[in-house]
Amino acid sequence: MADLEMQNHHAQISPAIFARANLPLTLKFDDVVYKIKIKAPGGSSEKKTKSAKKEILKGVSGTVFPGEMLAMLGPSGSGKTTLLTALGGRLSGDLTGSITYNGKPFSNATKRNTGFVTQDDVLYPHLTVTETLVYTALLRLPRDLTKAEKVEHAEAVIEQLGLTRCRDSIIGGDFLRGVSGGERKRVSIGQEMLINPSLLFLDEPTSGLDSTTAQKIVSTLWDLANGSRTVVMTIHQPSSRLFYMFHKVLLMSEGNPLYFGKGSDVLTYFSSVGFAPSVAMNPSDFLLDLANGVATGNSNEDQVAIKQSLVNAYKTQLSTVVKSELAADGRLQASTDDRKPERWSNTWWGQFSVLLRRGIKERKHESFSTIKIVQVLVVAILAGIFWWQSSVDHLQDQVGLLFFITNFWGFFPLFQAIFTFPKERKMLTKERTSGMYRLSSYFMALTVGDLPMELVLPTIFFAISYWMTGLKPTAGAFFSGWFVILYNVLAAQGLGLAIGAVVMDQKTATTFGSVIMLAFSLAGGFYVQNVPVFIAWIKYFSINQYTLKLLLASQYTNNQTYNCGTNQTCLVRDFPAIKAVGLDKTGTILAAVLMAVMLMLYRLIAYLALMRVGVTKK
Ligand SMILES: Nc1ncnc2c1ncn2[C@@H]1O[C@H](COP(=O)(O)OP(=O)(O)OP(=O)(O)O)[C@@H](O)[C@H]1O
Hints:
Membrane topology: Multi-pass membrane protein
GO molecular function: ATP binding
Mean pLDDT: 86
Strand order of the largest sheet: 5-6-7-3-8-9
Largest sheet: 6 strands, mixed
Subcellular location: Membrane
Low-confidence stretches: 1-14
Pfam family, one: ABC2_membrane_7
Bound molecules: adenosine-5'-triphosphate
Keywords: ATP-binding, Membrane, Nucleotide-binding, Transmembrane, Transmembrane helix, Transport
Number of domains: 2
Helix content: 40-55%
Radius of gyration: 32 Å
Structural class: alpha/beta
Strand content: 5-15%
Number of helices: 22
Distance between the termini: 43 Å
Shape: elongated
């Protein structure tokens, strides 16, 4: 009774926008088999392995009509998530059998009408609930809606999911207090609801939540199903209250279906095949026991035998019923989505500007962190003190200073950039899988968003240390030196982005980054001047070498001299560390050109590496 009240309550407050699905979809899956390759020991030698195939799904069938909510139950590893992913059109590989949506295979039109809520809530921790949903609305809703209408949709979702109380709270994360787990889950559901999906897939939407919150979420899903939507979810041990809210239940064990049909008929069915619960118990506990091969009263039989007899019972008793439902025409005429299949809901610029604003908001705490500013200020002042008013006559010191600046502004931006993509990996996968935006607009937004701070910090550093260390006091030398540093930052940032995107793992990327940067630094020409020929080629890739060359050119002229002993003058260009790098004009121009090439090339590598993230069937 209380349940019904709750359901009615939700139904009453549902804003009109989400009252019904635009395109009710009947989901049918027939004999779905999924195999993966595994390495199996074989051959004559112990070490030899050959690949074998393992069946994860062993012929699962069923029909879910609009207005129905299907729960997939089963022990851990029984294949629920795999089946859900397959039904959601996100599983590629060795998948056979047929999965149709209103009688048609998965298409862009189906994708546009499908919401998929993954088990992990992948959300930006610093955004508020409202911001999260508004940005998603701006990115996902079609371009024929105005911005105000999209915001209105987000507001409606907030209202329908009961998120009004926490609408201005931040999402939070591991080390950041934010909304509760249940609220976070509802935000994830809300992101999918925004597109008013006809089909909604959810992977364990209630795991980790208390039973009251779980109940609220399932009630909301029940409401959604009630609006002619097809809802499919995996769930771990629902309470009996929840269990009876599901219209249909699929019980799985090791990839085999053990039951498919109405939740209310499940106990009758298992009693009819000889497995009745001996005491009154939560049906889902009973079903999970069965799927694990545990049955009261049959304790003599071993678990494998029980599971096998349940698989056989399904084949002889239920399979034909399930197949006949599959063969039926369905309650609805197969309607189609007549809208022109546009790949993207927004223009490139539209996506770029929303992603830029969202990125700046999410990362402003990080990019403008006080600790980072203090770090740069301290290093600038330290350098200023150590090299206080250095003069050309102490050439070794001055070249050392220029090389220090080169190195610092190589390492610093590289390690800022290296984490960018590994940190974004889950979000990028989630959003690209649901076709939210183009990779190019995302890439540009992310790299441009970080630029201001990336360029402000070296500028502050250079302005402080330049005058303290007494480098060439002309505007020309200062500005050209400043440009060189910014140029260096952009190239090093590009390298960091590329390493991060290729490796996609923070730890490995850091290791790679330090090794590469150290190699570049060693090849920079300052530490070693007589590099063995077989390794000398590294200098052609060394950002540090080119930067040092350009910085030297900004400070010294080709014919400049310095005091190299009592009453003795020498040519600057003959000083060993300078000679190794060179002060010649052609070399300097070439260095500038090659830096520009690297700046672009590294970004291109990063972009190409990202193309593999979030790629699924269309
Ligand atoms: N790509 C893969 N490579 C190796 N094993 C896989 C792969 N995909 C699925 N499996 C295996 O298939 C089985 C089913 O996995 P699945 O995630 O679908 O189970 P599940 O029922 O959702 O489990 P859980 O409830 O723990 O999430 C597991 O044994 C899993 O290890």
